[in-house]
Amino acid sequence: MPAYINVLNNPVPVISVSGGLNRCVPVYATFSTTTSNIQSWTWNVGSNTFSTPSFQQNYFAPGAYPVTLTANYTNGCTNNKTVVLNARPLD
Fold first, then answer.
1. pLDDT in tens, 8-18
2. Strand segments (E) across 1-91
3. Which of 11, 58, 73, 89 is deepest in the core (most CB within 10 A)?
């Protein structure tokens, strides 16, 4: 049997944020992904985690809030993406 290499698709997941990543407080943001072939999702937003394709998170204090999505694909691969939501103060 000849040696072979099996290359699996492992895309960086795409994160969509309703209203964008730069907003004034209060921020009511819905995070979602439309990346295909994901078997399970793990969203990490600081002290909270979610295991759904989308979720809503509210921010009432100004600051920079990282949000990470870890995608486990149906082919066994795992990849992640982090975005930062910037909640600006009202001036």
1. 889 999 999 99
2. 16-17, 22-24, 27-32, 38-45, 48-50, 54-59, 63-73, 78-88
3. 73
CB 53 within 8 A of CB 33: yes
Residue 81 pLDDT grade (very low, low, confident, very high; cuts 50, 70, 90):
very high
Instruction: Classify strands 48-50 and 27-32 as parallel, antiparallel or unpaired.
Output: unpaired
CA 88/CA 91 separation, integer angstroms: 9
> Which residues are within 8 A (CB) of 36 and not within 5 positions of it... i.e. 6 or more apart?
none
User: Is the Cα torsion angle 81, 53, 71, 3 positive or negative in sign?
Assistant: negative
Taking only the tens place, the pLDDT of each residue in 65-79 is 999 999 999 999 999
Task: Give the global pTM.
Answer: 0.89
